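input
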Amino acid sequence: MNTLLMPLAAGKGPWERLLLGATLLSLLFTLVSISLEQIFLALALVFWIVLLVQKKRAIAYPAFFLPLLAYVALSLIATLTSKSIPLSLADDKGMLIYLLVPIVMAAFTRRDEFDPAYAAIFVSAAVSALYSFGYFAVVFKGQLDTAHRVHAFMSHYMTQGGVMLLFCCAALAFAVFKRGKARLLWSAGLALGGAALLLTLMRSGWIGIGVALCVLLALWRPKLILLVPVLAVLVYFASPASVKARILSIFSLQGYSNAERVEYARAGFKIIKDYPLFGTGPKTVSIVFQDPKYGLSDLARHNVHLHNNLLQIAAERGIVSLLAWLAFIAAAFVSLLQLLRTAKTKDPALYAAAAGALAALAAFFVAGFMEYNFGDAEVATLLLFIITLPFAMEKARE
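output
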C-alpha cells in the first residue's frame, strides 16, 4: 500500500494529489465494489473540475473520446423520442462514467504513477479471485454447474466474468511483454484471474480470452497462433465434466440460452426495422419487446436486454448511435495500434500497456456479440480505464 501511495507524496499541488488519489482508489475497487468505485470516481470528477477552473489542467483525451461523445449526444436525442422518457433519463446518468477518460488523462502525469495504477487493478482482481475461490469452496462446496456460477462481489456472474476477462487480457499482455520479476507476478495474476473466470462458466468470456491470446501472439510471435487450436483442445480435455459440457454447448442450439439468443436476434432486427433512426429510447427495449409481434417466448420477455451490444444499441438508440459507437471502437483500436508502433522500440512499458488494452478491447468486442457488456457499468468502467491508461502514459512521456 505504501508503494501505491508514494506518487501522492511529492511533486503535485493539493488538488492534483486529491485527483490522483481518488482515481487510484477508484481503480482499487473496480472488481470489488461498484459503489466505492463510483464514489471515488465522483470525487475525482469534482477534483478535476476544480483543476479545470483553476486552469491547472487542460482537457486532454485520446482520439476515441470524440466518437464516444457523439454516442452520448445521440443517446440524449434518442431519449427525447423515448417510449419512456423518465426511464431513459435515469439510464442516461450512467453515461457520466465516460468522463473518466479525460479524468485519467489529467490524473496521471508522471511515469512513476502508472505502476501504482496497474497495481491497484491487480490487487482488486486478486481480492476478487480469492473471494471467488472461497465462495466456491464454502458455499457451493466445490460444485460447478450452471446453477452454481460464482459472481464474487458483482451482482451477476456475467458481470464478474466481464471484468475478470478484461483483467486477464491485461495480465496476459504483461506476462508476455513485461520483464524480470514483474512478468512472474503478472503470470500469477493471470492464473488467479483465469481460474476465477472459469468459475463463472461464462462462454463469451472464454471465447474472449482466446481472441485476446491471438491478438497478443500476433504482436509477439505470429506463427504461434497456429498452436491456439491445439491449446484449446488440450484445455478442453483437461477440464472437468461441467466445463466440457459448457464448452460443447457453444455449438448447440438445443440449450435454452442459445435458442433464447436466436429469439433476441430476431426480435432485435424487427425492433430496429420499426425504430431505425433513434430507437425505442435508452432502457426501453425490454418494454417494447413485450409486444407479441416480436415473437419472444414468455421466459425470454423477462430479460432486460437483447444479449448483444450491436442489436441492443441499435434497437434502443438507433442506427446512427450504433455507428457512433462503432466509430468509438474503431478509433480506439486504430489509436492503440499507432501507439504500439510508436512504443515498440522506444518504450517497453508503454508497449505492454497498449498491447493489454488492445487485447482487452478485442475480447470485449467479441464477447459483446453474446452479451450486452457495454451496458454493464462495472465492465464499461474497467474497459475505459484499461484503454485510456496507455494514452496517459504516452502523454506523460512527452
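quick obs: Residues 114-138 form the longest helix (25 residues).
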